[in-house]
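To whoever is on call:

I kicked off a structure prediction for a single chain this morning and the downstream step that reads the tokens threw a length-mismatch warning. I double-checked the sequence; it's 88 residues and nothing unusual in it as far as I can see. Pasting both halves so you can look.
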Amino acid sequence: MKLPNKVYDVLKWIVIICLPALATAYVGLAGVWGWPYADEIAKTEAVICVLLGAMLGISTAEYRRADNTSPETYEPKHIEGFTSSKSE
């Protein structure tokens, strides 16, 4: 399953930033305000993040296989101001 770049970027943002932040906010506020199901919501969020993360991993593997780029040979693009940690 190869995802378009835009879909991949949005899903990655949701999985890495959005869902964990929302779950943490709910769990934190649930204790203060007495909201129900804090544990259930935190566990549900974790399962959803693992599922979406697995889908993103599959998409990344498909993309690299199509481009003949393995994780060992993949070289990230140069970003101005940052240097590689590899010794050259």
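Update from on-call: the warning came from a stale cache, not from the record. Cleared it. Sanity check on the structure: The chain has one domain: 5-66.
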